[in-house]
Amino acid sequence: TTLDGLSNNTVNTIYKDSRGLVWVGTQNGVNVLQGNSIINLKKSDGLAHQTCWDITEDTNHNMWFASYGGGLSVFDGNTFKVFNVHNGLVNNYIRKLYSFKNKILVGTSNGLTIIDINSNKFFNFYNTDSKEPFQIMGFFDYKGEVYCTTYRSGVFKVDLDKPKLTFLSKNKESVYYQPFNTEAMSSQVEICLEPL
After folding, report:
1. Which candidate, 112, 98, 94, 178, places its Cα nearest to that of 146?
2. What is the pTM of this model?
3. Residue pair 57/17 in contact by the 8 Å Cβ criterion
4. What span, in angstroms and rounded, lies between the C-alpha atoms of 106 and 103?
5. Which of 27, 50, 98, 181 could bridge 105 with an S-S bond, Cβ 3.0-4.6 Å?
6. pLDDT tens digit sequence for 24-50
7. Which of 103, 104, 93 is nearest to 53 (CA)?
8. What whole-number distance in Å separates Cα of residue 139 and Cα of residue 107?
C-alpha cells in the first residue's frame, strides 16, 4: 500500500523482469520493488503519463510501460524515451503490451503498433472503414505464432515478418462477430527512429 511506499493503491499490473525485479504499474506511476526498498518512478522522472496499464521487458532488457492517454515509455535502466502519436504510435491509449522475439506489440483502444526493437521501425494497423474502434484486448502465442484478441472484432493472427494481420473467423453466429473489412485495414511504416 501507500503506507509501505507504493505511489498509489490502485495497481493495474505487476511484472517480474529477467533480473528478478518486480515492477508495479499504478494510477500514479511505476514502482520498482528491489529487496526491501520501493523506488517510485513518475512523469517527472520521464514516464509518458502517470498511469501505467501494462509492463513488459524486451530481449535487450529494456522495460516498456503502457499508459492510458500518454503513449508508451521505454526505460533502459538509466533514461526514458517516450513514444506517442506524434512520433510513431497509432494511438496513445494503450491497453496491452506484448514482447515476442525482437518485437514489441502495442495494443491500443483503436489500433495495433508493432515495434521492431532492432530497426526501430513502427508498423501501425487500424480500421479505416468502421465506426467501431479496433480495440486490442490482449495477445497470446501458440506454436510460435502470435495472435491478438479484440473487443467485438474477433481474433487476428499477427504475421511479424511481413507484418500483417489475418482475421481468423467470419462466423456470423459468434456473439462477438462484427463485420470487419480487412481490406480497409491500413498498415504502413510510420517512422524509423534512432536505436534505443
Report:
1. 98
2. 0.86
3. yes
4. 10
5. 98
6. 999 999 999 988 899 999 999 999 999
7. 93
8. 8
